Amino acid sequence: MNSPKTFPDGAEFKRYNVPGWAVVFLDARGILSVVSDYGDYGYWFGSIGGDGDIRRFLCDCDDDYLVRKIAPQEVYDGAATKAGILKHIREYRREKNYTKGFARQEWDLVTGGYADPESDFRTWYEETEIQDASEFWRGKREPQAVAFCERIMPRLREMLRAEMAAERKAA
Questions:
Q1: More confident residue, 118 or 167
Q2: In angstroms, how far is the first alpha carbon of the chain from the final one?
Q3: Where are the alpha helices (H) located in the chain, listed in sequence order?
Q4: DSSP code of 126?
Q5: CB atoms within 10 A of CB 93
Q6: How many CA atoms lie within 13 A of 110 on its CB side?
Q7: CA distance 149 to 44
Q8: Mean pLDDT of 107-120
Q9: Is the overall model pTM greater than 0.85, yes or no?
Q10: What is the spatial distance between Cα 26 and Cα 133, in angstroms, rounded to a whole number?
């Protein structure tokens, strides 16, 4: 029978308290579980390569990769959507693809408050006469997950590096 994967000290699981911010659980098989002020996340990194130590992997992986794993869904970015629509209207008017009247109508729809895509894409989408309007939707990474990576991960990585250094020294 296969024995369970363990950390060098023989533990299958480890718990890290990032003071005031998060509790992080690691499983030697590559599982990350987080409860934090910046959201709760979990992911199984099934193929981490190298020596297979999830701690080393987390120290080496970049934050964008980690955010894509723990929070894969993008959230609506109203400001980027609105900016993209206004840029489109300006460009199409400049190229004479839109009449002055049509461009003004669409510009007013975007900036007039009623169907402001910054806060309400659906209403703008239902009211606009621009073709293929769904293509203007813009997303961004989930802000709490980004904040987790910016604020918690540096502290966690420091803890993990110190732990691994102590293990090397003891060996």
A1: 167
A2: 28
A3: 54-60, 63-70, 78-94, 100-111, 121-127, 143-147, 153-170
A4: H
A5: 17
A6: 23
A7: 17
A8: 86
A9: no
A10: 44
